[in-house]
C-alpha cells in the first residue's frame, strides 16, 4: 500500500508534544536568521554560552609583533585549544592549514600602520572573499572619539550590511586612542554605539571599575580584549572578573602568545572561561602544564 494511504494509527504525530521553538542562548540574537545563529554558535559554545578567541591579527598594522614572528611555528599549534581565531586573510591563506575546523573571525579593516593615524582605516576585505574563506564572523575597529570616528563607524555599518546579506555576524572592536581615558563611561558609549548601529558582537577592554555597567548597557555579547601583556595570574584574574561581570568570553592575543608558556596559558584561560575556575586554581593549573613542558 502506498505511504499516502496508511491509516493515522500507524503514524506518530506526537499530538501532545508542543513544537520546540529553540530559544537562543545568546544575548540580543533571538531575532537573527538561522545562518547567523549557527555561526554565532560556532564562536560561543552553546553549552557554556562563552568563547575563548585567540587574536593574532596584530600584524595588520604593526608587522611581525613579538610572539607572532612565525605564526606557523608558534601559533598554529595553539589553534585547536581556541573556540575561534581572529586573524587576517593573509595569515589565514598563507599559514593556517585548511583542515582547521575552528571558527575564523576575519579582520576586515586596515590601512594605516603604527607610523600613522590609526583611526584612518578603510574596509580591506570583500565580503565575497570572506565567504570564500568560510569565515564565521567579520570584524573591524571603531574609533569613538578618534580623528576618523565617523569613517570607522561607516565602515562598520557597511560591514554589518554585507554580513547581514549572507548571515555573517560582525564583531566591532572598540579601539582607544592614545590620549583617551579608558574608563567605563567611555566604553559604555563605544559599546552601545556599536550595538545600536548593528554589530552582533562587541569586543572591548576590561576596566576594574563598573565593567558590569558596560556589559549591562550593551544589548549584544561582549568579549574582553586582552590588551598588553600582564603576569599570567593578573591576566587570569582579569578574565575571571570580566566573565563574572557579564562578558561572554575573551579574545586574547599578547597575554597568550607572549606568555612564556602559551599553550599552558591557552588551557588555563579555557578553564576560567568555560569551567568557572578561580584565577588562583587556573594559575596553578598553568604552572602544572608549563612544568610538563
Ligand atoms: C585590536 C584587536 C586585536 O586583535 C586585539 O585586541 C589584540 O589582542 P590583545 O590586545 O589581546 O593582544 O582587535 O587591534
From TrEMBL:
Enzyme class (EC, first level): lyase
Keyword match Protein biosynthesis: no
Enzyme Commission (EC) number: 4.1.2.13
The organism's place on the tree of life at top rank: Bacteria
Record field: transmembrane: none
Gene Ontology molecular functions: fructose-bisphosphate aldolase activity
Keywords annotated in UniProt: Lyase
Protein name as catalogued: Fructose-bisphosphate aldolase
Amino acid at each position: 500500500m502506498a505511504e499516502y494511504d496508511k491509516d493515522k494509527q500507524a503514524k506518530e504525530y506526537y499530538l501532545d508534544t508542543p513544537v520546540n521553538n529553540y530559544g537562543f542562548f545568546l544575548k540580543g540574537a533571538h531575532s537573527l536568521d538561522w545562518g547567523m545563529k549557527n555561526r554565532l554558535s560556532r564562536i560561543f559554545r552553546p553549552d557554556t554560552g562563552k568563547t575563548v578567541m585567540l587574536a593574532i591579527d596584530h600584524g595588520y598594522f604593526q608587522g611581525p609583533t613579538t610572539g607572532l614572528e612565525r605564526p606557523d611555528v608558534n601559533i598554529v599549534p595553539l589553534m585547536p585549544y581556541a573556540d575561534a581565531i581572529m586573524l587576517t586573510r593573509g595569515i589565514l591563506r598563507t599559514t593556517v592549514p585548511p583542515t582547521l575546523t575552528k571558527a575564523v573571525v576575519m579582520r576586515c579593516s586596515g590601512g594605516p600602520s603604527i607610523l600613522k593615524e590609526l583611526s584612518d582605516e578603510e574596509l580591506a576585505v570583500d565580503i565575497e572573499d570572506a565567504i570564500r574563506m568560510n569565515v564565521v564572523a567579520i570584524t573591524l575597529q571603531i574609533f569613538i572619539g578618534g580623528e576618523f570616528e565617523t569613517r570607522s563607524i561607516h565602515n562598520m555599518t557597511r560591514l554589518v550590511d554585507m554580513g547581514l546579506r549572507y548571515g555573517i555576524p560582525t564583531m566591532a572592536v572598540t579601539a582607544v586612542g592614545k590620549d583617551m581615558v579608558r574608563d567605563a563611561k567611555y566604553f559604555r558609549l563605544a559599546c552601545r554605539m556599536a550595538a545600536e548601529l548593528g554589530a552582533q558582537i562587541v569586543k572591548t577592554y576590561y576596566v576594574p571599575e563598573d565593567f558590569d555597567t558596560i556589559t549591562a548597557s550593551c544589548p549584544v555579547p561582549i568579549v574582553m580584549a586582552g590588551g598588553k601583556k600582564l603576569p599570567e595570574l593578573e591576566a587570569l584574574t582579569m578574565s575571571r572578573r570580566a566573565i563574572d561581570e557579564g562578558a561572554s568570553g575573551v579574545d586574547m592575543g599578547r597575554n597568550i602568545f607572549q606568555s612564556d608558556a602559551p599553550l599552558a596559558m591557552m588551557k588555563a584561560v579555557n578553564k576560567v572561561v568555560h569551567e568557572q575556575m578561580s584565577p588562583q586554581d587556573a594559575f596553578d593549573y598553568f604552572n602544572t602544564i608549563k612544568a610538563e613542558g
